[in-house]
Amino acid sequence: MRSAPPPPADIAIRFKYNQDFDSIYAMVGRLFPMTYFLPISVGTFTKGLGFSDLAPNLAALVVFIPALTGLNLLLLRKQER
Known about the structure:
Elements: H1 8-29, H2 34-45, H3 51-75
């Protein structure tokens, strides 16, 4: 037996709370370099975009390189050879 769909007010309340979580997920998503690399590769190969179009994503990747390298140097132990 199927239950009745939720009333519109219930859907609106759920949507409001999901917006709060969406902003958290978007913030976490910005911490991954692939978020910036994918638009660069798609824009370059399929749309023929230039450096000026890709500058925000390129700048983000330039920031990620030393940040991730520094984290690796701090958090990973050296291995014997």
